[in-house]
Write a structure and sequence with these properties.
The protein is mostly helical. It has one domain. The chain contains 10 helices and 3 strands; from the N terminus they run αααβαααβαβααα. Strands 1-3-2 form a 3-stranded antiparallel β-sheet. α4 crosses α5 and α9 packs across α10. The longest helix has 86 residues.
């Protein structure tokens, strides 16, 4: 097994393990925002039991790598919309103070942070657990007659639990996406219904306008006839 510190030095090794986000909850439960997808800098710092400034400095040094693993920075209208729709539903410690931009991390980004953060006992535990699970997944399968020793059985059990946790994390990540898609479809349906009602209203207005125009045409024809009669009378 590569030493736990190898993850701190090897980008390639970190990339190869970036999908195993299930190990986060095996070490410590990661709380996310109401959208089910993101956490703030404050929440990441709380998970790893370090100061927010430590996370900010790490983010600044590894922004490109973290960005490839899901970190985004919201500004302007996007930030105002996210605060209104998501952060307003989470008034706890994860709610950031007003600022011009906001970094948001996914579970994959948080795992990336765990593989980069040196001075955190939680991050070290995540790295050790991650490497144990990866080692077991690479180990050749035993035959039916082989008797695995206790450590191997424990490691294999941990690997299975990790895979199940990854599936659960993926489903949790997918759930909010499906809910947002459903909400958007509902909004589109409502807009279409509103457009249909407006079209019906315009049709009725046009029908009324046609009737008014016809009535005015008839009245004008009558007036025109009377004017002709008056003209003929005056010529006599």
């Amino acid at each position: 097994m590569p030493p736990e510190t190898a993850l701190l030095e090897s980008r390639a090794l970190r990339d190869s393990l970036a999908r195993r986000t299930g190990v986060l909850d095996k070490v410590k439960i990661l709380t996310v925002l109401p959208d089910g997808l993101h956490v703030t800098t404050r929440m990441v710092a709380g998970y790893f039991e370090v100061g927010e400034e430590v996370i900010r400095q790490l983010t600044s040094r590894h922004r490109a790598e973290l960005g490839e693993n899901g970190m985004i920075t919201l500004r302007g209208a996007d930030l105002r919309r996210f605060k209104r729709d998501i952060l307003s539903l989470h008034p706890g410690d994860g709610y950031p103070q007003p600022r011009s931009n906001l970094n948001l991390y996914t579970r994959r980004t948080v795992l990336n942070v765990a593989m980069l953060l040196r001075d955190s006992g939680v991050a070290r535990s995540v790295r050790r657990y991650l490497l144990d699970v990866e080692e077991e997944s690479r180990r050749p399968r035993r035959g039916a007659g082989d008797r695995p020793h206790g450590r191997s059985l424990e490691a294999r059990t941990a690997a299975v639990e990790s895979h199940l946790a990854e599936v659960g994390a993926a489903l949790r990540d997918l759930g909010p996406v499906l809910r947002r898609t459903s909400d958007r479809l509902d909004r589109i349906d409502r807009r279409l219904d509103l457009m249909d009602r407006r079209i019906e209203f315009l049709d009725r207005r046009l029908d009324n306008t046609d009737r008014v125009v016809c009535a005015m045409s008839e009245r004008l024809a009558g007036v025109d006839g009377r004017l002709r009669e008056l003209g003929e009378g005056m010529r006599r």
